[in-house]
């Protein structure tokens, strides 16, 4: 049985979305980010620096999974593993698609996420007095090129691997989502906007978001 460690308001959302798409049962252990705690955590709740959780993930980060004795960290790698394990249309179908899945996933992690997370922090998530407009501006500027690359790809085909929605769309959509506050980037790249809208219309995404919104902020 799969166990997913990490509150829904974290990168665990990526794994929960995929598990719901796959229709696989899972235990959810809501480990919270230590930096979000104001005082002691609710009784029995683990956080990212709890000794019990550090035994699962010595990096002190969420998410992690445990699946039939295998422990994995890194949200995007976890998704590639779960898709490969369970197969079906969400998984890469052959070695060429495996290559493309790794390429787009690593592209999202390296070319997009370092900037999209800054957009999220400095345009939306942090209290206004902790936001830095210059950091936000630099992040938006850095995202112009990757947005163009993605827009070109999605102008040719509806999803990243072609005609069907796959784990690759989940991995890239979850990283791109952080850039939503930068409205101009989305307006300038209509194929990216249409693709994200289609990804977010999926029942599994909406179920994941309902669970996330039900969690205390
Ligand atoms: N590259 C990692 C990043 C994991 C990460 O930074 N997770 C955040 C929550 S989304 C975390 O655990 N923060 C808690 C902390 O730094 O104490 C992944 O994709 O899984």
Description:
Helices cover 57% and strands 7% of the residues. With 217 residues, it is α+β, with helices and mostly antiparallel strands. The protein has a four-stranded mixed β-sheet with strand order 2-1-3-4, with helices on one face. The longest helix is centred in the middle third of the chain and has 31 residues, at 95-125. The radius of gyration is 17 Å and the shape is globular. The mean pLDDT is 97. Bound molecules: glutathione.
Helical coverage, percent range: 55-70%
Strand content: 5-15%
Low-confidence stretches: none
Oligomer: single chain
Report how far the terminal alpha carbons are from each other: 29 Å
Q: Radius of gyration, Cα only, in angstroms?
A: 17 Å
The largest sheet, given as strand count, sense and whether it forms a barrel, is: 4 strands, mixed
Which sequence of strands runs across the widest sheet? 2-1-3-4
User: Based on CA inertia axes, which overall geometry fits?
Assistant: globular
Bound molecules: glutathione
Structural class: alpha+beta
What is the typical, i.e. mean, pLDDT? 97
Q: Please report the total strand number as a whole number.
A: 4
- DSSP helix count? 9
The SSE order reads EHEHEEHHHHHHH
List the helices and strands and how they pair.
Layout: E1 2-5, H1 12-22, E2 26-29, H2 51-56, E3 64-67, E4 70-73, H3 75-86, H4 95-125, H5 133-156, H6 167-177, H7 183-188, H8 190-200, H9 203-214
Parallel strand pairs: 1-2
Antiparallel strand pairs: 1-3, 3-4
Helix pairs in contact: 1-3, 1-6, 1-9, 4-5, 4-6, 5-8
The structure holds glutathione.
